């Protein structure tokens, strides 16, 4: 439990960056000497391909997931609104590699909530989250929704269900896009801070509470996602993203007698976006990420540490987009990340452990606004695994309906 308290207290005080630097310094030199030279050699040809690809093109190098973002702006004090969040999903994954089993997710999420603007910058909401998988028995989930939000303009404090999931802007090796379907809700505390040269998101998601004699351990995830801008104007953005994610399982008052685990992921990146004028394309975006994994558990889940490099470039034009990603890693794991980037297989961990992973991902997207509150998104991804010499496929599409209705106004006493 002591590890949980340390991580939680540091997180609540927004000292995640300090924690990141301290732990990172312990193993950076050892891992970098071991693996960086080989990655640089492998990446030379890929960077040449990226430079060729992005010339005169536009892009969002990391997946542009704003399609899934929740928007909860303030209204006049006393206003009562009905917000509806409706996500209709189809996602099919076909794995030829041995990293995981293929499957299909098909269904919908519906989350109506009543929102009351308590005062200027303060709103409170309550509702219900319903999820149904087509062909499944009953409902996949029926959960209550509650949130209290205080917005000062540049800073937002949120308690209850979070503006989380895809909205944290985490890279896929840290956060699996499939969680928007299977584990969308996050509950806890969140602090958002926006300035001219900074976008910052800190949160703690308390995933499992324990009580005396609970037969399961407590579980929480905390982290931050920051983007520090050196240049930010209408023609260009040049920034340095930094991300940290900590996942803890443990407890002292439960009876599960399970091992306490504490796993960390760190990401240090460079991001460049250019917006050409009078062009067929919208923007140019190139990103390079150096990622780390650290397991400080008494009995590590898999590896003690690992690292990876993630580079990408993409092009968006009108409603369409294309993207090219390259992933090169050694003993990398992430409790919340997409399994395709892992070194340990979900399909058969004892049989399939890949100390080195080398992948190229090609993607095509189409996004269209059907009406004011109704949007459509289609994505397809082909993943080539160099070590296994296999090709995996992901196809997905979504309809999202997000209307807001003003129900009336109540005078504050």
The helical percent reads: 10-25%
Please give the CATH class.
Mainly Beta
CATH architecture: Beta Barrel
Number of DSSP strand runs: 17
Radius of gyration: 22 Å
Tally of individual domains: 1
Name the beta content range.
over 45%
Query: Which strand order do you get reading across the main beta sheet?
Result: 1-2-3-4-5-6-7-8-9-10-11-12-13-14-15-16
Question: Oligomeric form of this entry?
Answer: single chain
Strand count, sense and closure of the main sheet? 16 strands, antiparallel, barrel
The class by helix and strand makeup works out as: mainly beta
Distance between the termini: 45 Å
Output the number of helix runs.
3
Element-by-element helix/strand order: HHEEEEEHEEEEEEEEEEEE
CATH topology: Porin
Uncertain parts: 1-61
Tags for this entry?
mainly beta; Porin; 16-stranded antiparallel β-barrel; 17 strands; disordered N terminus
Verbal overview:
- The chain is mainly β and 413 residues long.
- It has one domain (2-409): Porin, CATH 2.40.160.
- It is built from 3 helices and 17 strands.
- A 16-stranded antiparallel beta barrel has the order 1-2-3-4-5-6-7-8-9-10-11-12-13-14-15-16.
- The chain is globular, with a radius of gyration of 22 Å.
Question: What layout of secondary structure does this protein have?
Answer:
Blueprint: H1 2-12, H2 16-54, E1 79-94, E2 103-119, E3 122-133, E4 141-151, E5 155-161, H3 179-182, E6 187-195, E7 198-208, E8 218-232, E9 236-250, E10 261-274, E11 284-295, E12 305-317, E13 320-330, E14 356-371, E15 374-385, E16 390-401, E17 404-409
Antiparallel strand pairs: 1-2, 1-16, 1-17, 2-3, 3-4, 4-5, 5-6, 6-7, 7-8, 8-9, 9-10, 10-11, 11-12, 12-13, 13-14, 14-15, 15-16
